[in-house]
Amino acid sequence: MQPTKNSIRRPARRGPQSDTSGGATGSGTAAQTEPVAVVIVSWNSRGYLAGCLSSLRGLTRPVRQVVVVDNASTDGTPAWLAREFPEVDLLALPTNEGFCRANNLGIRRTRAPFVLVLNPDTELETGFLRSLLPAFDDPDVGLACGKLLRFDRKTLDSAGQELARSRQPLDRGYGRPDEGQYDRDEPVFGACGAAALYRRAMLESIADGDGEYFDETFFAFVEDLDLAWRANKIGWRAAYRHAAVGYHARGGTAAGPLWRRRLAAMLGHRAEVRFHVAKNRYLTIMRNDSVAGYVANIPFIWARDLGTLALLLVTSPGVLVRLWRSRPLFARARAKGRLDARRTRNQV
Fold it and tell me: Phi, psi (5° rounding) for residue 153?
């Protein structure tokens, strides 16, 4: 999701991290010497972009190209970018094309073998890429992520994604204090789309048609889980590197237990957002889940679905009508899943 707030409280920046922290091993491997491109999708995000782009300037492992795709912002973002960050490759769209299509357009403007997809409400520590790129020394790794904290520098936002038995994306540590519980490098299911580093060969191997890496029927939300699941199905793996630290201004300031904070976040969304979140859940399941996997997890999946449908019935009955009318999209997702079954990592 693209942020709409106009400002965030900036943390004091740490000093540069060691080049060898978190398992980084010198600078001779291909992953650490090949160029990296960055793609940022902006929608009325001018208040965040200064911090995000300034952190990219400060990386000890510089990037080759920064593309900002602006989704028809009304806050003066394009003119401001041209003035304050002239090195940025700006693609200003006349209409809001959504997070997925905008990212696809941005990725297609790059040629680097690694692409870092960032939300504008993120900032990276100076050693982020030096700590993350060594994960790609393993040829099976197609995507990687670091530790994302909130801007209070003590609350976890995401330490990689897992696939819950309910088929929800589960950001590890979400909303919990960072007490070092994720200070180890390990495999994960996927990467939070707020700061995900992708191998281009992986993106090309899962793309629909000509450069549709993120499924554009999603518009926004859950697209990071869908992409990771598609990659996983053909043998790519995701890696988490704890020393690659960044900050994300995602919402979640409600007090109380985690379930209450998640409920408060859902209730705080507009009906349009609720529609895309629910729609994309079913698109993801229909495209990616196997019959055996679905049957084995029916109690968890149906419990989640019943809760979601009850919430929508009370708060947004119109969303249920839109979901019913979206049946052709769900049928198309099943067809895409059948095509996915024919894919291989070596088809690029």
Answer: 70, 10
- Tokens 């889940």, residue located: 289
Element (H, E) at 156: strand 156-158
For residue 36, what is the domain's CATH number? 3.90.550.10
Same-domain status, 192 and 270 = no
Instruction: Please write the tens of the pLDDT for every residue from 110-165.
Output: 999 999 999 999 999 999 999 999 999 999 999 999 999 999 999 999 999 999 99
| Gap between the Cα atoms of 339 and 56, Å rounded | 38
Helix and strand totals (H; E) in the chain: 13, 12
Whole-angstrom distance, CA of residue 158 vs CA of residue 149: 7
d(CA 338, CA 179): 43
For the entire predicted model, the pTM comes to 0.87
CA–CA gap between residue 169 and residue 284 (Å, rounded): 10
SS3 122: strand
6 domain-assigned: no
